[in-house]
């Protein structure tokens, strides 16, 4: 399993690295708040929608959820679909909030 810390993701954002930052929580969780710059593809629909939203299977993707469990499962699922550069952010939004990193509220992707 490929995982990274919230500090790793924040450093990538700070360096303006190109990657897709994806929140896999439920719609209402995403609307309540989410990591700044993250798009939303809920775990329940990611297998259905990812090929439309992110068609290039080699581009880097970082997934996160509430605490790190759903994003690991989602990462495994999309790897099985042929996505080759997928990482789950350990600790999820809880760790992101605890680190004081930027949060956005109520924005649709």
Topology of this structure?
Elements: E1 3-4, H1 6-14, E2 20-23, H2 27-32, E3 34-35, E4 39-40, H3 46-53, E5 61-64, H4 69-80, E6 86-89, H5 92-98, E7 103-104
Parallel strand pairs: 1-6, 2-4, 2-5, 5-6
Antiparallel strand pairs: 3-7
Textual characterization of the structure:
- The chain is of the alpha/beta class and about 110 residues long.
- It has a single domain (about 5-105), classed as 3-Layer(aba) Sandwich (Oxidized Rhodanese, domain 1).
- Helices cover about 40% and strands about 20% of the residues.
- It contains 5 helices and 7 strands; from the N terminus they run βαβαββαβαβαβ.
- The chain has helices at about 5-15, 25-30, 45-55, 70-80, 90-100, and strands at about 5, 20-25, 35, 40, 60-65, 85-90, 105.
- Strands 1-6-5-2-4 form a 5-stranded parallel β-sheet.
- The mean pLDDT is about 95.
The CATH superfamily appears as Rhodanese-like domain
Q: Beta-sheet strand percentage?
A: 15-25%
Number of strands: 7
Please state how the strands of the largest beta sheet are arranged side by side. Answer: 1-6-5-2-4
Domain Rhodanese: 15-105
Keywords: Transferase
Pfam families: Rhodanese (PF00581)
Enzyme class: transferase
Q: Which short descriptors sum up this protein?
A:
alpha/beta, transferase, 39% helix, Oxidized Rhodanese, domain 1, two-stranded antiparallel ribbon, 109 residues, 5 helices, five-stranded parallel β-sheet, Putative Thiosulfate sulfurtransferase glpE, GlpE_sulfurtransferase, EC 2.8.1.1
């Amino acid at each position: 399993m490929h995982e990274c810390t919230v500090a790793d993701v924040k450093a990538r954002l700070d360096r303006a690295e190109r990657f897709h930052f994806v929140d896999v929580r439920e719609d209402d969780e995403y609307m309540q708040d989410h990591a700044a710059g993250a798009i939303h593809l809920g775990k329940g629909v990611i297998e259905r929608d990812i090929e439309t939203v992110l068609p290039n299977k080699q581009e880097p993707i970082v997934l996160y959820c509430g605490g790190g469990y759903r994003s690991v499962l989602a990462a495994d699922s999309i790897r099985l679909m042929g996505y080759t550069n997928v990482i789950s952010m350990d600790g999820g939004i809880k760790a992101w909030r605890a680190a004081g990193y930027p949060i956005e509220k109520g924005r649709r992707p």
